[in-house]
């Protein structure tokens, strides 16, 4: 596959014979991989399926992706960013009433609810978000689910729920508790007699009590 130079007034564009502008094929591959991960999980991502999805040869995939492991690391990051976006959306939809402390806790609870709901509504993407990797991505997550939790704890500090020295412990308590119940519910590990909504409420109530006790 060779690049042709197309002269458009004021600009020069490199257009490859596969029909993608320079850099666009990588994005198309990533989008296709995220779609596959959402439907079937990261283990379903393969070169031939991606090539078919974006309309190029398998060899073209390797010219734009260093390795499947590198692609999986990118897909995992996109999944985490989707999770973070869902958390932010739920937080920002909390009604603007009550005391600053009540509102801070309501917003923080909404973040936790969105986290668990993401695991249940998009289980494969949730798994993909936390796929282990040894690769370092060139850019940090943006938005970052971890940072959303950190920001929520800072709101609680600002509202007087706890001191700033206790903030790191509050983040750890919140993240581990919510991720734990999300993972348990996603895999159906609770007894049939335990109602999902009740389980979520119990954990989120416990997070609040733990933070208030710091």
Automatic annotation (TrEMBL):
GO molecular function terms listed in the Swiss-Prot or TrEMBL record: DNA-binding transcription factor activity; transcription cis-regulatory region binding
Keyword vocabulary terms for this entry: DNA-binding, Transcription, Transcription regulation
Origin: domain of life: Bacteria
Classification via InterPro entries: Homeodomain-like_sf, HTH-type_TetR-like_transc_reg, HTH_TetR, MT1864/Rv1816-like_C, Tet_transcr_reg_TetR-rel_C_sf
Heme found in the keyword field: no
Location of the HTH tetR-type domain: 23-83
Record keyword Nucleus present: no
Signal peptide: none
Annotated region of DNA binding: 46-65
PANTHER family, per the entry: HTH-TYPE TRANSCRIPTIONAL REGULATOR BETI, HTH-TYPE TRANSCRIPTIONAL REGULATOR RUTR
Descriptive protein name: TetR family transcriptional regulator
Lineage, top ranks: Bacteria, Bacillati, Actinomycetota, Actinomycetes, Mycobacteriales
């Amino acid at each position: 596959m060779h690049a042709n130079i197309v002269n458009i007034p004021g600009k020069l564009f490199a257009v490859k014979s596969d029909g993608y502008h320079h850099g666009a094929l990588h994005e198309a591959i990533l989008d296709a991989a995220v779609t596959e991960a959402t439907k079937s999980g990261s283990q379903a991502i393969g070169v031939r399926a991606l090539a078919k999805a974006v309309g190029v040869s398998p060899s073209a995939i390797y010219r734009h992706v260093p390795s499947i492991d590198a692609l999986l690391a990118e897909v995992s990051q996109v999944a985490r960013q989707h999770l973070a976006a869902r958390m932010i959306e739920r937080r920002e939809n909390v009604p603007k009433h009550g005391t600053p402390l009540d509102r801070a806790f309501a917003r923080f609870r909404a973040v936790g609810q969105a986290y668990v709901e993401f695991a249940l509504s998009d289980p494969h993407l949730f798994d993909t978000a936390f796929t282990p990797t040894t690769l370092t991505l060139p850019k940090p997550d943006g938005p970052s689910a971890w940072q959303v939790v950190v920001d929520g704890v800072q709101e609680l500090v600002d509202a007087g729920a706890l001191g700033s020295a206790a903030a790191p412990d509050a983040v750890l308590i919140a993240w581990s508790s919510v991720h734990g119940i999300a993972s348990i519910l996603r895999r159906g590990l609770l007894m049939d007699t335990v109602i999902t909504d009740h389980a979520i409420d119990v954990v989120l109530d416990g997070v609040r009590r733990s933070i208030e006790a710091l």
